[in-house]
Amino acid sequence: ERPCPGTSCPAPNNLTSSAAAMVRISCSRKCCVSFWPRVGSCASVSCSILLVLVLFAFLAFMISTERPCAVKNFDAEHVLPSSASAVGLGKTFEIATRENMNTSIPVDFTGLWWIRCLDDPVVCGTSRSFCSLYRSLRLEEGLTFAGMTSNTTGEPWFLAQLSAQTNMQHRWMFSNSLAGRIAMIAVGFTGASENKLNMVFYNRTNGRIGSGSETIIWPIDKIDEDQWLRKTIWTDIGGVPVSNMNYILTRIVNADGTPHPVLYQKWLKHVHGWQVRVFNTNDDCMRKCGSLTHLRGVCKQRCSESS
Predict the structure, then answer these.
(1) pLDDT value of position 2
(2) Terminus-to-terminus CA distance in the chain, angstroms?
(3) What is the Cα–Cα distance from 168 to 268, expressed in whole angstroms?
(4) Sequence-distant (≥ 6) Cβ neighbours of residue 217 within 8 angstroms
(5) 80: closest CA among 266, 273, 258?
(6) Which residues, listed in sequence order, are joined to residue 174 by a DSSP beta bridge?
(7) What interhelical angle do 36-64 and 178-190 show, nearest 10?
(8) How many C-beta atoms surround the C-beta of residue 171 within 10 A?
(9) pLDDT, the chain, mean
(10) Contact 79, 113 (CB under 8 A)
(11) How far apart, in whole angstroms, are the C-alpha atoms of residue 72 and residue 171?
(12) Cα–Cα distance between 298 and 305 in angstroms, integer?
């Protein structure tokens, strides 16, 4: 456009030469108008639309996964069988007992266990940033070793190989946080309910949990009767430890269904304000579909067609 008589509209000094060349000038009797405000306005509108779409997608996801049909939600205190029974919830979590564990090995993993990441490098050797992030995500909150088996049935007990199907219904506990929901969906799509957590114990106090990776080692060492330090060691090609991210496996409910007098209350404080959730089915197809939606009929039809 030709410039206004007797006026000029120079490009701002902070523009590059190519950007300045894009500044087109319109002539009017009152002023020269830069087209840059229009460009900025368009960008603002686009960002606003994108933000609305992201918020809509987030709300749709949270609504869809609020009460998914393959998941059982309940308040944290209802992990106790007596509490769940009192409100008519039925079975919420399968507490490990000597009766439902198929081994008599002298390593006590009965009860319900909290995956407890402590912000204490002295105890855990863990980076504070990792622990803070892990706790804030409320990702996985507990597990049970119900159904555990071992390859030894008497003396000598060790070296012993133990395994437990921790992925089955009522055995692995998540939260209803965003991260917890995503984690449960991921488990539903990638982990079969029959999958086993495998462990090797060298003696009554030291062992190693199978990580499924050649570069990740999970040693586990007994602290006391209710706590085990589960280390995570990442190794490089030469086998030298390069990073530790550890947690303490902590018993919060005893084998008889009673709460631990101290550690259970700490767990309740940790999950305060959130519900916990477990899978309520061992059907892998239902877990995939039913971790995403509350529409049980749709999932049943889909799984029936796929089978």
Answers:
(1) 42
(2) 68
(3) 23
(4) 208, 211, 231, 232, 233, 235
(5) 258
(6) 140, 277
(7) 70
(8) 24
(9) 83
(10) no
(11) 12
(12) 11
Pairwise CA distance, residues 127 & 43, whole Å: 41
Residues 6 or more apart from 12 whose CB is under 8 A from it?
A: 20
pTM above 0.85, yes or no: no
Beta bridge pairs of residue 102: 149
Chain segment 71-123, per-residue pLDDT in tens: 999 999 999 999 999 999 999 999 999 999 988 899 999 999 999 887 666 55
Place of tokens 């009554």: 204
8 Å CB contact between 275 and 155: no
Please, which residues bridge with residue 36 across strands?
none
Look up residue 34 and give its amino acid.
S
Phi and psi of 77, rounded to 5°? -65, -15
Token pair 């039809």 in the structure block, residue: 301
Residues listed for the chain: 307
As a whole number of angstroms, the distance between CA 138 and CA 151 comes to: 34
Strand partners, 162: 150, 199
Give the DSSP letter of residue 177.
S
Taking only the tens place, the pLDDT of each residue in 40-49 is 556 677 788 8
User: Nearest-CA neighbor of 257 among 76, 97, 90?
Assistant: 97
User: What is d(CA 254, CA 154) in angstroms, rounded to the nearest whole number?
Assistant: 25
**pLDDT > 70: percent of the chain:** 79
pLDDT on residue 238: 58
The identity of residue 304, as a single letter, is S
